[in-house]
């Protein structure tokens, strides 16, 4: 086996690729063929057949199979066959739903799969990390995951967190030099390993192993698929379902006893009790939630929010605080240079004169201490830095040429804690003239307040002199003028260094101040509306930014986040507060400026301690802990680091604040829809039980045959429930306050709705039952009979439930509104259900199978009419409830 850490970079390249040249397209193709995709093999996915058979593991299905066998033994072969057919259809439906839900989760996972920057076709491009192959040159920077194992070929202060492999939690400082002796993995400083991530610096490496051949791959020869955890709502419903099931089973047991006591054959009584239990136990609750969540997340993905943790969808519905970065999320992140401040003068960008020494020096510094490039017209790099090279291009200065005569020798990369970036250069040609003859300089740029503390001298038209108090006042005044207009300001400084100097962060001092550059980053157009929507919806938007307080406040005011300057503070002002003090402080603050990632965690915690559900955005490597702490960590899909994406519950593919607000709206809608679907299922089940109870109390014949209950429960029930889960948004969704996070879904109000719905269904069904049983009104030529009674009860119960679907669309009356018709899935499920029940009721050939007496037109119309009555009755009750609520609110 090759020990690449013992080789020079060149030897490693030759060993892997046969030359020091980058991989050609052909080599990439053949290596991909040879080594396969860069993926860790996951545990085997369950096959469709297995999923199908798993549907039979359900306790109720087992009881049903048992019931079918007993029916068969008792000679009722038809019932046995019907039960088995219905169970099979149900299992097929269950399998299809599971496969669909899994597919949609898989596609979500793929959408948020990590990417890597790889040298292909003469330049670095971003590709999915799974497409990397052996021999590729991969570029790394702070926040990137290391996508494969490899030998480092260039290094600018890279520190790598290898804790996943070695357990060592401190970042390891990397180095390119050859290691002579044999050393363990943790000491191979010139290597990087898949599964670790870059916490600092930049570099490149040559891929030497991918996929299962990497060190992590070897540890985890077979990774088990991490099973998706159930969401709190699912757990809640599972518990509720279990308790309810026990209650129903006891009820059915008593019913069985009474029936036998009254002389019913044991077999029949048993079958009926089983069917009632199956019909009444809401076994589909948890799976309805899964299906609705998976459809919902797909819709959210189309709207630029990719959900990485399913739990987040429910959480989104109760978000009450959104803490958002400014740059790029609330603003466009399209920076343009507005002004220079140099030699004590403000110069608008249109008036910059590169013939002037000071202006030229500032311009060149801003191009050199800068990592951005433009390739094929595409801007690559930080927009702040791109703005700096764009102004140079406008003035006819090629950044490429400048960087080639002022060669970068060392660098200290930018990081948002330090708020500075430094580069060292060897100046050639006539460039030393610009820097007072210095041949080697270190240029530093960064936040004005930070850099001002590091400068002791100033560059003036007359040369370098000591910095005076007046200079500082002038610079600060200029900075605050720029900031008040919402401009982002960077300060520049330099100092002469010795040849071969390797800088550390302690060397960023005793510098010569060069000047300031202000940049415009306009707010996104959608931000204002999204902020207003948040406030309407009872959600507090908070801006948390690394930028200057005055700049941040100016932008926040424009967008509507901040009303008064007193609502803005600097991160450092919370340093001295303990958690209790911070808790009472956060409510009054809308803008935090100059914030470090540690501040973010404290702010999130303080809001959480006050009982809020907090969404928090983050993009840098240091933001990962805050993203994990937040209830909904939101990462930026475009500018965010891979590490932040990994820590987040949701990734925005457009980095846009408005998308978070839309996701909250979706979260609220999904939760409401799930609630409505559950209301639909439970009220229908409750209705059925009440009818049976009624018949039992009044010693009437059994109102339903077991097959009736199975027909309803397994065939006509689940589609409307799913359709309700797909109900579109309504306009008042974002006018309500957020749902309390700890609110159980089964509130008194919710249970009373189930009670009222169930009662209405029960009354209609009992009326139909009595008509058929006693031969009243429309029983017509049939005369009354137990069979006709149960046929009409079956028809009415089934169609009442279908009609009741429309009642469950909303808490408000919708009958004469467009909303009544706005869910095509519900209409489809209704029509399909009505066709099925009509066929069962009206086609004489099914009489035996479904234990019915084929109905004529008058009886059918009676059934439909009674079932339809559920709509006006419930809608009327909703209208009264609405009026009472309004009156209460007005008092
Ligand atoms: P947000 O936190 O809202 O995304 P931000 O981009 O201003 O805002 P940071 O990236 O943490 O936050 O930047 C903090 C400060 O560091 C900026 O206000 C600026 O003064 C300085 N800064 C930003 N980018 C650079 C850079 N590339 N080089 C040097 N200094 C920078």
Search tags:
single chain, 891 residues, alpha+beta, Calcium-transporting ATPase, cytoplasmic transduction domain A, Calcium-transporting ATPase, transmembrane domain, Rossmann fold, 4 domains, 9-stranded mixed beta sheet, 8-stranded mixed beta sheet, binds adenosine-5'-triphosphate, ATPase_P-typ_transduc_dom_A_sf, nucleotide-binding
SSE arrangement:
Blueprint: H1 9-17, H2 25-35, H3 48-54, H4 59-73, H5 77-111, E1 115-120, E2 123-128, E3 137-141, E4 149-161, H6 163-166, E5 172-173, E6 191-192, E7 197-209, H7 215-219, H8 232-261, H9 266-280, H10 285-302, E8 305-307, H11 311-317, E9 321-324, E10 336-342, E11 345-348, H12 357-368, E12 373-375, E13 378-380, H13 383-394, H14 399-405, E14 406-415, E15 420-427, H15 431-434, E16 440-447, H16 448-452, E17 455-460, E18 463-466, H17 469-484, E19 488-496, E20 511-520, H18 525-536, E21 540-544, H19 549-559, E22 568-570, H20 579-586, E23 591-593, H21 597-609, E24 614-618, H22 624-629, E25 632-636, H23 642-647, E26 650-652, H24 657-697, H25 706-716, H26 718-725, H27 748-774, H28 786-807, H29 824-842, H30 857-890
Parallel strand pairs: 9-21, 9-24, 17-20, 21-23, 22-23, 24-25, 25-26
Antiparallel strand pairs: 1-2, 1-3, 3-7, 4-5, 4-6, 4-7, 8-26, 10-11, 10-20, 12-13, 14-15, 15-16, 16-19, 17-18, 19-20
Helix pairs in contact: 3-5, 4-5, 4-9, 5-10, 5-25, 8-9, 8-10, 9-25, 10-24, 10-26, 11-24, 12-13, 17-19, 18-24, 20-21, 24-26, 24-27, 24-28, 25-28, 26-29, 27-28, 27-30, 28-29, 28-30
Residues 325-327, 382, 384-385, 414, 416, 419, 421, 445-447, 490, 545-548 line the site of adenosine-5'-triphosphate.
């Amino acid at each position: 086996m090759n020990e690449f850490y013992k080789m020079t970079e060149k030897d490693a390249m030759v060993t892997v690729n046969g030359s020091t040249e980058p991989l050609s397209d052909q080599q990439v193709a053949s290596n991909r063929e040879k080594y396969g995709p860069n993926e860790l093999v996951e545990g085997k996915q369950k096959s469709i057949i297995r999923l199908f058979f798993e549907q039979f593991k359900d306790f109720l299905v087992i009881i049903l199979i048992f019931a079918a066998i007993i029916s068969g033994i008792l000679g009722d072969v038809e019932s046995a066959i019907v039960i088995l057919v219905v169970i099979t259809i149900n299992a097929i439906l269950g399998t299809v739903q599971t496969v669909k839900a899994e597919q949609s989760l898989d596609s979500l996972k793929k959408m948020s799969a990590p990417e890597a920057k790889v040298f292909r076709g003469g330049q670095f491009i971003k590709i999915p990390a799974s497409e990397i192959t052996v021999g590729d040159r991969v570029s790394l920077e702070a926040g990137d995951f290391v996508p494969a194992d490899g030998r480092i070929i260039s290094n600018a202060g890279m520190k790598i967190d290898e804790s996943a492999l070695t357990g060592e939690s401190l970042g390891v400082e990397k180095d390119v030099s050859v290691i002579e002796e044999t050393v363990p993995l943790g000491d191979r400083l010139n290597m990087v390993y898949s599964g670790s991530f870059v916490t600092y610096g930049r570099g490149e490496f040559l891929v030497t192993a991918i996929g299962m051949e990497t060190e992590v791959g070897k540890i985890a020869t077979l990774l088990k698929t991490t099973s998706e955890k159930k969401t709190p709502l699912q757990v809640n419903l599972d518990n509720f379902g279990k308790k309810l099931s026990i209650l129903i089973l006891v009820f059915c047991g008593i019913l069985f006893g009474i029936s036998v006591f009254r002389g019913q054959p044991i077999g029949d009584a048993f079958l009926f009790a089983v069917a009632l239990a199956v019909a009444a136990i809401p076994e589909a609750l948890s799976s309805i939630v899964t299906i609705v969540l998976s459809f919902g997340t797909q819709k959210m993905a189309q709207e630029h929010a990719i959900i990485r943790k399913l739990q987040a969808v429910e959480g989104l519905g109760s978000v009450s605080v959104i803490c958002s970065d400014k740059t790029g999320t609330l603003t466009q992140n399209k920076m343009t240079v507005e002004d220079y401040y140099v030699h004590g003068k403000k110069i608008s960008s249109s008036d910059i004169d590169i013939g002037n020494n000071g202006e030229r020096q500032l311009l060149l510094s801003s191009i050199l201490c800068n990592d951005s490039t433009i390739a094929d017209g595409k801007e690559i790099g930080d927009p702040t830095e791109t703005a700096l090279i764009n102004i140079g291009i406008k003035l006819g200065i090629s950044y490429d040429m400048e960087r080639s005569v002022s060669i970068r020798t060392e660098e200290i990369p930018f990081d948002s804690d330090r708020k500075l970036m430094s580069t060292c250069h060897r100046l050639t040609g006539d460039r030393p003239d610009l820097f007072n003859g210095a041949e080697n300089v270190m240029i530093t740029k960064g936040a004005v307040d930070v850099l001002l503390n590091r400068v002791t001298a100033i560059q003036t038209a007359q040369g370098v002199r000591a910095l005076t108090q007046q200079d500082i006042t002038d610079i600060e005044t200029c900075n605050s003028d720029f900031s008040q207009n919402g401009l982002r300001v960077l300060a520049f400084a330099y100092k002469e260094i010795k040849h071969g100097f390797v800088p550390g962060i302690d060397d960023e001092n005793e510098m010569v101040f060069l000047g300031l550059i202000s940049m415009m980053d306009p707010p996104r157009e959608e931000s204002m509306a999204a902020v207003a929507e948040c406030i309407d919806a009872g959600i507090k938007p908070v801006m948390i930014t690394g930028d200057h307080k005055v700049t941040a406040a100016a932008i926040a005011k424009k967008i509507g986040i901040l009303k008064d300057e007193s609502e803005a503070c600097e991160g450092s002002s919370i340093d001295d507060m303990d958690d209790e003090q911070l808790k009472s402080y956060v409510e009054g603050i809308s803008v935090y400026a100059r914030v470090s990632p540690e501040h973010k965690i404290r702010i999130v915690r303080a809001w959480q301690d006050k009982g809020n559900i907090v969404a928090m955005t983050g993009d840098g490597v240091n933001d990962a802990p805050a993203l994990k702490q937040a209830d909904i960590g939101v990462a930026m899909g475009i500018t965010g680091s891979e590490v932040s994406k990994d820590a987040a519950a949701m990734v925005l593919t457009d980095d846009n604040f408005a998308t978070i607000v839309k996701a909250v709206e979706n979260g609220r809608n999904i939760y409401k829809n799930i609630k409505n679907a559950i209301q639909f299922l439970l009220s229908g089940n409750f209705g059925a039980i009440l009818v049976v109870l009624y018949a039992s109390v009044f010693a009437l014949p059994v109102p339903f045959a077991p097959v009736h209950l199975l027909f309803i429960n397994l065939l006509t029930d689940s589609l409307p429930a799913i359709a309700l889960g797909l109900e579109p948004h309504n306009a008042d969704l974002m006018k309500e306050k957020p749902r309390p996070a700890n609110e159980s879904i089964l509130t008194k109000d919710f249970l009373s709705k189930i009670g009222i719905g169930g009662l209405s269904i029960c009354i209609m069904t009992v009326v139909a039952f009595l008509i058929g049983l006693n031969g009243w009104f429309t029983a017509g030529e049939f005369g009354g009979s137990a069979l006709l009674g149960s046929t009409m009860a079956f028809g009415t119960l089934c169609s009442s439930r279908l009609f009741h679907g429309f009642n469950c669309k909303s808490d408000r009356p919708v009958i004469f509104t467009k909303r009544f018709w706005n869910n095509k899935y519900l209409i489809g499920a209704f029509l399909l259900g009505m066709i099925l029940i009509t066929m069962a009721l009206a086609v004489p050939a099914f009489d035996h199978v479904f234990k019915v007496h084929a109905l004529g037109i008058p009886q059918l119309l009676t059934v439909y009419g009674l079932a339809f009555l559920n709509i006006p009755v419930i809608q009327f009750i909703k209208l009264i409830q609405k009026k009472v609520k309004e009156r209460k609110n007005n008092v």
